[in-house]
Amino acid sequence: MTQYKIVIDTLGSDKGPEAIILGASLALKNFPELFVTLVGPKALIKEKIRLFGIDTSRVKIIPAEETITNTENPYTGIIKKPQASVVKALQEVGLEEENYIGMISAGNSGAIIMGSFKYLSDENKTRPCMAAIMPNDNHSFTCLVDTGATIDCTPSQLHSFARLGSDLMKKIYNLDSPRVGLLSNGAEPTKGNHLVKETFPILSSDPDINFVGNIEGNRSLSGDCDVLVCDGFAGNQVLKNTEGIAMSIIGDIVALSRKKHEPKYMEVVEHLMKKYDLSALGGGLVLGVRKLVIKARGNSDERAIVNIARMLINHANEEAFYTEQTF
Amino acid sequence: MTQYKIVIDTLGSDKGPEAIILGASLALKNFPELFVTLVGPKALIKEKIRLFGIDTSRVKIIPAEETITNTENPYTGIIKKPQASVVKALQEVGLEEENYIGMISAGNSGAIIMGSFKYLSDENKTRPCMAAIMPNDNHSFTCLVDTGATIDCTPSQLHSFARLGSDLMKKIYNLDSPRVGLLSNGAEPTKGNHLVKETFPILSSDPDINFVGNIEGNRSLSGDCDVLVCDGFAGNQVLKNTEGIAMSIIGDIVALSRKKHEPKYMEVVEHLMKKYDLSALGGGLVLGVRKLVIKARGNSDERAIVNIARMLINHANEEAFYTEQTF
Question: Which domains does chain B have, with CATH numbers?
Fold first, then answer.
C-alpha cells in the first residue's frame, strides 16, 4: 500500500490544539494509508492520540510550544522565532528523505506564505501564490488564484498562477483540461485594467492552458471556469466579498425568522451555512512551492482537518480516489 | 413652490419605452413639484401621458427615434449618432437656461458615461466617476465609487472620487459628515496595492473628508462606511460579485424549496429579492459632471424611475424631504 505522509501544525488555531489533534486523529481513522507528523505540545498530543486509540507507529511528534500570533509581523516572526511551530513544520515538510506530500497549518497566513517562500521555494516556478477552492453554481468547485499573496502582479505572474491553478485542479479533481478564466470588468477581450489586457494574449497563446476568456464579477462563481485568475488584490475582494455577502444574507434570514416567528426559515440558514461554511472546505493553498502547503482557516474544526488531509491525498494520488469534498 | 426639472431618456430600456414613460407618469403623480422632459417617440409619449391624466404643462417632449444599442461601441455611437435619444437628452440637460437638476437613461452605460464627459464636463473636477448606492447591513446605504468608469486610476482620482461620493451622500441622505472608507485587502493602514497605499495618506490628510481607513472586502457592505472608494476595476468586482452571490443564493433557496416541496422557503426568496433587486434602487450615478446623470439598469421598471426621480429631487433639495429609498 502507498503511504501518504503529511505534517500538521497543531498550534495557531482559534479553537486550540485539541481541535487540530482531533482532526488529525479522525483523518488517521478515515484514511488507512495516512501517516501524520504532528508539531506542537508533545504531552498533549500523546495523550489525545492515545485516547483516540491511534496506532502510534503512524504518528511522529515534533515538540513545539511557540507560535507566531496573528497580530505579529509575519516576516519578523519567521526570522525571530525559529522555534515557532509553523517554522518547524515547514522545515520538516521540506526534508527530502521524509517524502511528505504536504502540510497543514491554521496559523498566521502571512507567516505561512513567507515561510513557504523561505523554506520551500521551487526554482522552476516564477512566484508562489495563494489559491482558494470555492463552491460554484454548478455544484462543483472553482479555484481562485491569487487570493492575496501577491498584491501588485505582473502579467507573467498571472500566467504562472494560471498554470499552478490548472495543475492543482487536474490533480485534485482529476480534470483533463481545467477551464481557466481571467477575472475582468467585462466579458469582451478588450475589457480589463492594464494588467488584464496584457495577460489576456499570454493566456490565449499558451497551449497548455484551456483559456476560456474574461469572466465578469457576477460570474466569478458561476462555474463558467474551473480556475479563475486574478491579482491578489482583486482575488482578495472576490474571496472576502463572497463570504461577506453570504454571511450578510444568512443574517438577514435569521432576523426574518425571528421577526416572523417562523422557525422553518432556519432550515434555509442551515442549508446555506453548509455551502458557504468555507472553514469546512479547508482554506488557502500555497502553490508554486516544493510541497503543497495548506492554510486552514483560524476557526477550523476537526472536519476541516479531515477534508484538507483528503485534499492532500487526492493531490498526491493521480487517481484521486477520495472524490467527496466535504466531510 | 420650487420646481424640479429633470430629463428622462425613454429609449434604451429592455422593457421598452412604455415602462419608462409609466415611471415618469408615476413620478409626476407622486412629486407635485416635478417637471419632466421626455426624450423619445413623440406619439407614444403623448398617448401614454394622456392616458395617465398628467397635466401636460409639466411635460416637455423632445422627439427621438434612434438609440445606441448595448452592443455598439459607446464612443463611436456618441459621435456617429447625434440624433440618438441619449445624446439629445444629455444636450438638453446641459442647457443653462433650462436649469435641470439631472437626467435618467436606461441606455448603453458606456455611451452615458462618454456622453456625460463630452457634454457635461465640469472643469473643477479631475475626472467623472460612476457611483452605485448599495444596501448595507445597517439597514442603510453605502455609496460605492468608482464602479467601472475609470479602470486604471491614480491616487488623485481616488481622492476626487472620495469627495464626489461624500458630497453625494451629504445631499441625498442629509448626512453631516459621511464616513469614507478605502477598499483594501486588509484593515491595517499598511495593507493595499500601490494605489491604495498611496491614496491612504491623501485621504487621511483631507480635512473635508471623514476618512475611516481601509475596509476589507467582507466589510464592504457592512455599513462601516457611507462611501467606499476604489478604482473602477475593484469597484466593478464588488458591484457584480454582490449581485452574483445574491442571485446564486436566491437560486439555491428556490431549488431547495422545490426539492423539499416547501413553499414557505419562497417567502425568504421574496424578502431577499426586495433587498437585492438593485433595479428598484436605481443604478449608476455619473458624478463629477455639471448635472447629476443617472444610469438606470437596462431592466428597470417604473419603480426604478420613480425612485431615481426621488433621488434627484433629494439631491437638489438641501432638506432631503423624500427620505424613503424604495418605492
Answer: 1-121+289-327 (3.40.718.10), 131-280 (3.40.718.10)
